[in-house]
Amino acid sequence: MKRTLVTIVAALAAAAPQAHAASWQGHAANAQHTAVAPAAAQSLSRIIWTTPIDVKPKLSGNELLIHYGSPIVTAADTLILPVKVNSSGGFRVEAHNAASGAVIWALNSDYVLPAYDWTPSYGPVLTAQNRLYYPAAAGILRYRDTPDQPTGVTGTMIFYGRTAYKANPAPFRSAVRISTPLTTDAAGDIYFGFTVSGSTPNGLASGIARVAPDGTGTWVSAATAAGDSAMVEVQTNCAPAVSIDQKTVYIAVSNGSSGYLVGLDAATLAPKYKVFLRDPSNGGNAEINDDSTASPTIGPDGDVFMGVLQRSYPFHNGRGWLLHFDSTLTQTKIPGSFGWDNTPSVLPASAVPSYAGGSTYLLMTKYNNYIGFGNGDGHNLIAIVDPSAGQTDSYSTVPVMVMKEVMTIAGPTPFPHGQPGQTYEWCIDSAAVDPATHSVFANSEDGHLYRWDLTTNTISQRLLLNAPRPEAYTPTVVGVDGTVYAINNATFYAIGN
Length: 497
Description:
Blueprint: H1 5-13, E1 46-52, E2 72-73, E3 78-86, E4 89-97, E5 103-109, E6 125-126, E7 132-135, E8 140-144, E9 154-158, H2 162-167, H3 169-175, E10 176-178, E11 183-184, E12 190-196, E13 207-211, E14 217-221, H4 222-226, E15 233-234, E16 241-242, E17 248-254, E18 259-265, E19 271-276, E20 297-298, E21 304-308, E22 321-325, E23 345-348, E24 361-367, E25 381-392, E26 401-410, E27 428-430, E28 432-434, E29 439-443, E30 448-453, E31 458-464, E32 474-478, E33 484-488, E34 491-496
Parallel strand pairs: 27-32
Antiparallel strand pairs: 1-34, 2-3, 3-4, 4-5, 6-7, 7-8, 8-9, 10-12, 11-12, 12-13, 13-14, 15-17, 16-17, 17-18, 18-19, 20-21, 21-22, 23-24, 24-25, 25-26, 28-29, 29-30, 30-31, 32-33, 33-34
């Protein structure tokens, strides 16, 4: 028997125990990256206010190849934005009144981006204790208390030690870069990946860091985390995920092209679990790509989902795969048919009234079919898939069993001068899901924000944000009052009744 909506939502809420129940803490909402709305979403009736998320966006030709960090919503309904302030980087965090958009406070950061192709995301996080952390230079964390107020206590934390930094700052400032969004657990510990591009006095190597609320820092290299000396980095943009019981941190490490999903002890960062990431169609090395924002998602049963690219590009139409494991990473389960630059969202099965299967939860995922890559025809979809049921993959040239499609819907806008059936790409790396209204919120490169009604399998609402723009994928967010937030063409939008 399927559990009730109330029971499933309670299980999803357990993904952030002791946390402010009504807040969006960072990438994909919480430490499990479920992207579940904290309140019933409002109607997509109008744009309430806007503000630049990038003061000086830099185009690559006609494309905006810049990832933007997730907006944050406090329990008191303050909106916190990570804002890019110049063409080559430079960031600040801004607190806005969620109703009016008025700026409450702003703080600049001296953060320096790691090496990149597409501009990586800048990802602050809000803890359950209502402290905001944001990345700074040299691997330093800055924090700001009472983020709902015009003033608050600020400070810094250094995972490798304040004494080491003060004794000789220059090599740390030159070599150390935070390279992923920040993630927080229920106790207020902070986790992130970092790169080291030169020598430091204390022998830092690229890896994963943990900083406790009292400032105590711990780190482990990517090589040690995987037990493989060939691993030289954490995947850029890969936000760590924390298990529901708060005991394990998951993150992807690589040799620059392939590698492992690892599970580390959340208190010590000691290695616990690992699995080499493989293409399910041929068993070869899956590609771990630093242009992707794919991050682990934790299901209510503890299963772990991680998006990767296929081994042979553009095999599988450039879609990648959503790999699927048990919590110990020892059991490989049925994969999903799409993984490129995508963190899947989790919703109770009862949020899809027509669903008649046996799973208690489902996944929402992007499902583009990229034209010009393999056999891709540009018939771009988003999908609800069943993590415990299978079907033969429709996109692979060899038989592969993948997660069963429960429901799909195509992008509604034909691509100008495209092939028959070609639509604009769905433009999301993490989509907000709202069990209360049976809805999913997704951006499109056609410049609209869409509401996908899971009861009728229709686009029930759409709102034009801006002109079409090819761009790196962006998140959608729902606030504590149901306001829907989206990023399109370097602009942040607050949308509602």
